[in-house]
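Q: Give me a protein?
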Amino acid sequence: MAGEKQAASEETVTLNLLKKKMDDFAKERGWEKYHSPRNLLLALVGEVGELSEIFQWKGEVPKGLPDWKEEEKIHLGEELSDVLLYLVRLSDICGIDLGVAALRKIELNALKYPVPTSNDDSNGADD
């Protein structure tokens, strides 16, 4: 197991690598017929629900999760990964380049929420 973790951490992870691995995974199992946009979206929503359960009764959690047990962090990583993998698969099936779309969205957000000037300490993000 430690060897697998080491090997995975040495590989550069890109959206394209995840897309390819998810596509291969589905093809190898004959699951492509089930990977419609609707089905993937519903699976993604389910995984977001599982992710939400982890935080449900914890209140505000400090950055870095200093008070969490290692098992809790591992579980969080698994649920975050489920969300990411379904999102990557959904974008692939829909023909959306998720990296390009994300960069475009950041640019749009920069226009919508410009850096405040010295006279303006609020940019509307908390409104």
The two ends are 47 Å apart (CA to CA). Residues 15 and 104 are 16 Å apart (CA to CA). The mean pLDDT is 91.
